Amino acid sequence: MKRVKMIVAYDGTNYCGWQIQNNGITIEEVLNRTLTDLLKEPIIVTGASRTDSGVHSEGNVAVFDTENRMPADKICFALNQRLPDDIRVLHSEEVSETYHPRKQNCVKTYDYKIMNRKIEIPTMRLYSYFCYFPLDVEKMREASAYLVGEHDFKSFCTARGQAEETVRTIYSLEVLKSDDLITIRIKGNGFLYNMVRIIAGTLMKVGMGVYPPQHVEEIIDARDRNAAGPKAAAKGLTLVSLEYEKELEKEIKGENKEWSYTLYQHRIPSHKEASLVIHRCKEEDFERLLIRVVHQAVRNGAHTVLVKDEERKNRIIPGRAYGFYSFHSDESGNGWMVTGSQPAKP
Asked: Which residues are the active-site ones (predicted)?
């Protein structure tokens, strides 16, 4: 048995998204069927990003397990001979049997394209959103700055999204313009359901003058989907790439108006230990932050996480369950709290 990783590109126009649906054909369904036919055994692929109906990709990632002896790096060539013209596997390779595309730290990059002119260009109609109202790109850029960093993006998540934790980090958000084509390019550590499309719809409202740029900060603070702009059309969205972390970050910092913390991970490779220092945090966000960041350290390989709350003593209650975790006082008397026995991972 071997596990094969693929980089998959597709034109999403004729598909009901990535994940298998009852109401139409999907990318996952086509890959499963074609791989099963090629390798002469039942194949089920697991994708990194479950793109929506009509969304395109230049670099989605998927894996599958097979007992077939065909070299992993040759599978892409054989598979492309059987796939429809709007789906291509750009690369295939063998990876560890434990590799999972949704359980690795990575940077996801999306592009949202807007054709901003009086009359639509027919050749762009499937790959960009047409907006005849002139958009102020400078105001859109000013507004985008409020979205960069670690925030609670609940306002930018469709209400029926299943994510329990709505905090995400946007590393960069550019608004680029070339002739009549505006591209919103966004990089982040993950995105909520419809998050990029709602951000695009909100920035277009800013570009039209409906919202002033600073209103985006108020939308973030509201943590209410009704506060943000509309969800932009799927056809303008393309998943550009997923860049997986090759080396564990030694420090992770999170800072905004609500909280500030540093997660030290340099001892994870050698001692399976991480340290979290919470510099400040609003009371209503404290428990969520504690659970979220400790869980991140555990997923990154820590068996023990030491936590220090610099803002307020005794905010972490010994023995109390915080999600999957509990804490006890460090015997040194220096204010550190230590996770109990390693919890079962969800």
From this structure: 52
104 pLDDT above the threshold of 50: yes
Q: Which residues contact 205 (CB under 8 A, 6 or more apart)?
A: 211, 229, 230
Name which of 38-52, 161-175, 231-245, 253-267 the model is least confident about.
Answer: 161-175
Is 261 annotated for ligand binding? Answer: no
Distance, in Å, from the CA atom of 93 to the CA atom of 172, rounded to the nearest integer, reads 30
Q: What is the pLDDT of residue 344?
A: 43
Nearest to 274 by CA among 289, 294, 257, 247: 294
SS (H, E, C) 185-204: EEEECCCCCCHHHHHHHHHH
Adjacency order of strands within the sheet including 273-281: 251-255, 259-264, 273-281, 304-309, 337-339, 327-329
User: Residue 185 — φ and ψ, nearest 5°?
Assistant: -110, 120
- Residue 346 has a pLDDT of 45
The pLDDT of residue 22 is 87
E strands, the chain, are: 2-10, 46-47, 56-66, 87-95, 106-116, 129-131, 149-152, 167-178, 181-188, 237-244, 251-255, 259-264, 273-281, 304-309, 327-329, 337-339
User: Which tens digits make up the pLDDT trace of 117-166?
Assistant: 999 999 999 999 999 999 999 999 999 999 999 999 999 998 775 567 99
pLDDT of residue 255 exceeding 70, the answer is yes
Residue range 36-77, pLDDT digits in tens: 999 999 999 999 999 999 999 999 999 999 999 999 999 999
Q: DSSP code of 82?
A: T
The CA distance from 113 to 54, in Å, is 13
Other beta carbons within 10 Å of 61:
22
Q: How far apart are CA 168 and CA 189, in angstroms?
A: 7
Judge contact between 256 and 151, C-beta under 8 A: yes
d(CA 321, CA 39): 47
DSSP per-residue codes, 27-72: HHHHHHHHHHHHHTS----EES--PPTT-EEEEEEEEEEE---S-H
Please identify every residue annotated as catalytic: 52
The tokens for 123 are 């050749």
